[in-house]
């Protein structure tokens, strides 16, 4: 890994990114060229995900998985653009992508990373999105003493609002089944005034949203069952 440039100090006046915040716009160099983030997202959903560093084992498996999901059409059918980020140079990214493709292809199935990876050597964007590790003392770049990025996932909607933020420590690889499951739940909730119960999977019964009451509940969800006034479940035909 190449040594990162000096990190800019985090701006103490910047409000934290919360669910519903508009994601910051930024320009960056990526493995697919220069981007303006909002322009890159366009009218799509977005998944921005960081990882601790290039040439690290867990990350190698994660980025391969995101590429295989792309090949399977999992992002396109949900109108999602995915983009990775880590505090490494573009040169490192290009070299590492070869390893990701080679390892993924031999250990799982054909792997070909086609989505962009941001080169955030100075951590400018990682700071903006609160993707740095202040807790795990082992997750520090030995050359600079700066914290590496952690495994953060943002799901961003077409209005550029944060809809989900997950932070994982460096030692635990993410579960992209879960990330897609929650994306499905969010997209379904946007369309149908429902919520999804614990461990929900597509096709299973959902929960009628509290804002839907009386005659409207009967009309929208004729098969719904009232377990308690506050807990009503229904099958959903999509
Ligand atoms: C990994 O991706 O394997 C990793 C990266 C940083 C710290 C620990 C593990």
TrEMBL record:
<keyword id="KW-0049">Antioxidant</keyword>
<protein>
    <recommendedName>
        <fullName>Thioredoxin domain-containing protein</fullName>
    </recommendedName>
</protein>
<dbReference type="InterPro" id="IPR024706">
    <property type="entry name" value="Peroxiredoxin_AhpC-typ"/>
</dbReference>
<dbReference type="Pfam" id="PF10417">
    <property type="entry name" value="1-cysPrx_C"/>
</dbReference>
<feature type="domain" description="Thioredoxin">
    <location>
        <begin position="17"/>
        <end position="188"/>
    </location>
</feature>
<comment type="similarity">
    <text>Belongs to the peroxiredoxin family. Prx6 subfamily.</text>
</comment>
<dbReference type="InterPro" id="IPR045020">
    <property type="entry name" value="PRX_1cys"/>
</dbReference>
<dbReference type="GO" id="GO:0051920">
    <property type="term" value="F:peroxiredoxin activity"/>
</dbReference>
<keyword id="KW-0560">Oxidoreductase</keyword>
<dbReference type="GO" id="GO:0005829">
    <property type="term" value="C:cytosol"/>
</dbReference>
<feature type="region of interest" description="Disordered">
    <location>
        <begin position="1"/>
        <end position="22"/>
    </location>
</feature>
<dbReference type="InterPro" id="IPR000866">
    <property type="entry name" value="AhpC/TSA"/>
</dbReference>
<dbReference type="InterPro" id="IPR013766">
    <property type="entry name" value="Thioredoxin_domain"/>
</dbReference>
<comment type="function">
    <text>Thiol-specific peroxidase that catalyzes the reduction of hydrogen peroxide and organic hydroperoxides to water and alcohols, respectively.</text>
</comment>
<feature type="active site" description="Cysteine sulfenic acid (-SOH) intermediate; for peroxidase activity">
    <location>
        <position position="59"/>
    </location>
</feature>
<dbReference type="InterPro" id="IPR036249">
    <property type="entry name" value="Thioredoxin-like_sf"/>
</dbReference>
<dbReference type="InterPro" id="IPR019479">
    <property type="entry name" value="Peroxiredoxin_C"/>
</dbReference>
<dbReference type="Pfam" id="PF00578">
    <property type="entry name" value="AhpC-TSA"/>
</dbReference>
<keyword id="KW-0676">Redox-active center</keyword>
<keyword id="KW-0575">Peroxidase</keyword>
<feature type="compositionally biased region" description="Pro residues">
    <location>
        <begin position="1"/>
        <end position="15"/>
    </location>
</feature>
<dbReference type="GO" id="GO:0045454">
    <property type="term" value="P:cell redox homeostasis"/>
</dbReference>
<dbReference type="GO" id="GO:0005739">
    <property type="term" value="C:mitochondrion"/>
</dbReference>
